Structures
1.
Amino acid sequence: MNPHAEPAKARVLFVDDEPRVLTTMRMLFRGHYEVFFAESGQKALELLKMQPVDVIVSDQRMPGMTGIELLRAARELNPHAMRILLTGYSDLNAIIGSINEGEIFRFVNKPWSNEDLSLTVSRAVAAARTSMAASSAAGTAPAKPAGPAPGVLVMDDDPAIPPRVQAILGDDYRVFGATTMDDAVFLMERERIGVVISDTRVQDNPVVSLIGTLKQHHPELVSVILTDRADAGQAIELINQGQIYRFITKPMNENQTKITVNSALKHHERLAHSPELHKRYEVEQKPQPAAAPANKFLDRIRSLRSWVRRA
């Protein structure tokens, strides 16, 4: 093998039932990647059985199989591929389903900007290549750090929610409650937190900026949204800017909550021990206005201790 040979082009699959959209994708990306096209979810799955890819870009609204159904199945066939969903309408249930089942890297609203879509695909390719290299080089996992097990921080205006989460999880879990963002950061400064469970708003302040800032500076932290007042635009922001792990609707279902938190804690451990995976969950960096709630906590969030790196 020639050590100076250029790496093979990344493989990107585009799925849309509109031929004109696929033509646009061909013109936009064929010079940069090895591109594949499918006009339905079923044809995409048939292709994936024969040809693994680095990135899948799918439309949501397609006859026969939706984009979310495709990406859910594609995750089983091609788990390392990064998944991007093109959505041209507001469908909250579909968006939440894609977060919980498809692990979407980004949502892209239709009509899209070619420049923004190109940048999103480029970042997805980089994330896929990095995580694939990390998986190939994986050896024995490092020992877990000494000290307390990672805790669960619950941010909610309702002070009854954290005790409820504690009761659902049981006494083997360390659950901390905060009714303000200031309280939440105070706890993170003092406790080893692995999972943050939060409503979409705390004290009437949207949490997307805070969650995005946490993910940017401490990518091993895993966020779960627990709310009864989500909307499609808000859910898209939370995945694109905060890379939330799962979405739970109130009132809490005990079984769903326990399964979700257990999965989130395991995901935290994977990210803590494999920094190469952080790129898979990279967030969009949006400029924050001076008055943004997360802004006054930015320095404190940056200086939060990393229990993993200290071990």
2.
Amino acid sequence: MDVLVTAGATRNPIDAMRHVSANSSGRTGVGLARAWAATGCSVHVLGSPEAALRAEGLSTEVFGSTRDLMARMHQWVQRHPEGAVVHAAAVGDYEVADSEGGKIPSGQDEVVIRLQPTPKIADAVRGWGLTGLLVTFKAAGPGTTSEGLVLLASKQAKRTGSNLVFANVLGRLASDVALVGDEVRWFEHRADALEALVGWLTSAR
């Protein structure tokens, strides 16, 4: 099975020196990629610069902004429409509107930056012609209840055509993970949920 794994955080430019990003090392995505590669899958990692360093030895490609990641994923799906996509990257939801490039001068009393939404990558993948498996991730806001998390993940699965959504809550990412698909499976520990995800995709090929 051909498998694409996205890992790490996008970097949406503010100017030539600065960017908006998320707190994601890519450790989860790379760990999954290594596990699937060990089962004989042909795995390609689209990673942030930090994730790409973790993915040494794997087929790896570095992405930058949200739009850059989207374009690279689109290209992969066009080449592997029957493959599996595991979209674990932390994708920036906003980018600078009307950016003129260059560098914002230092020393100003105040800098106001106007942001606009970026395209929703997960929503687009099926439209690119992917007929294989699609796994997406959902990190809900702190305070989200178990019932609320399942509802959010179920809506994401329906909206994106995901076969499975790996869902948890910010602030307790290491525990209380739900794998939401045709059924809902709860895991007390994140490591157990990741192991189950590896087994699910491996058995589905």
3.
Amino acid sequence: MPYADSIGALVELLDAGTIRLAGISNANVDQIRLARGSSSVDASRACRTSFLPRSAAANRLELCTELGIAFIPWSPLGGISSASRLGERFAPFQQVAADRGVSPQVVCLAWHLAKSPVVIPIPGASRPESIRDSVQAAGLLLTPEELALLG
């Protein structure tokens, strides 16, 4: 189905009052602009965005920042099987974590948050430690030097 038709269907549901809100997921720049062009559709964007530097989502994040719409990375720690090994796989996260006395997961979430004020990561919460890390990340402000190291 053409993407414009999907957006049109959302607009119809919104206009009819069948649904109150609608957002898009895994959209490219053109699709974000198309959804944003419809005054009814909330063009906040959810996508899988890992901790890997120079993510393919960078151009979409730039557009969302420019437009002032939420950018919602899900699985920001790389997924349940990768999150626990984050510091082992990516030494800069471990280095900053050790310097700051926090876990690499806290650093990774703080790194996501530092990318733009429109970023709202959706980390997992399967363990109490995960929830504490998520809360702690919101208060961790990374220095320009740390951000440069993390990429």
